[in-house]
Input
Amino acid sequence: MNDLRYNIKSALFGVAIGDALGVPVEFKSREAISENPVLDMTGFGTYNLPPGTFSDDSSLTFCLAEALTEDFDLDIIARNFIKWFYENYWTARGDVFDIGIATRQAIDKLARGVQAEHAGGIDVSSNGNGSLMRILPLVFYIIDKPIAERFEITKQISSITHGHIRSVVSCFYYLEFARHIIRGTDKFEIYKKLQSEVPDFLNSISTEPVEINLFNRLLENNIYELESNVISSSGYVLHTLEATIWCLLTTDNYHEAVLKAVNLGDDTDTTAAVTGGVAGLLYGFESIPKTWLNLLARKDDIEDLAERFADKIIFDRN
Output
């Protein structure tokens, strides 16, 4: 089970480092960043915070992982999200400084007692990247389950903040990609596999064709052949997913993947966090530059969480 323990550590730190790289330039346009590209871990900038500060992306990822160190329970996850927003739980430096509109609305509902599976928005405008950015720890809980169960659990976890099918499918695709990485499959082979596996499954559960077709740049085309000018990096969930896979498939190491994500501009922290999660899994913890890790806020706490999360997953498997 050493590989599982290593994979969990690689995923959690992969998310946090990508996030922290993007925080200082969040909301800057691609054009503005291109004049002074991000080449290293910096600080201050958008939020005037020290280097290594992670945002809501990592905090909510850690809240999910923390909940999964206990029994799988949507109420525990919801409780952790509430503690994050109202009590600064799992924040980098004691303050919540970044939160998406849909996530804020969902957490407000949770705090008022709305059931977790009904808190997330279900209208088409509720498709920001707020569930995709925090979903990665779930792959370790669902990895050995049948595909229908993997989808259903992913839907439950996404729907705490984002309940529309587009957000759910984005999370599902991302976790399926991560799952294949953990299995040791080549990244281009994964990309090709998912071009049949994902639509086949979605069709089997009668997903609306119009929703499946929105994913055609991933499911029918070779997104890695596209130029950067047609890759968007807004806070829209599909843009984040496409940018992540594009960054992963057009680079050869963790360092290049996350910097490419950050330098796309706009929602820099989330694009780099989501990219960093799968790049961490693909290339491993040792691939993350030590100078970046040494600057990361709460490094020891993240390491401890990774250990406890791995202990729980291994215990449940035995």
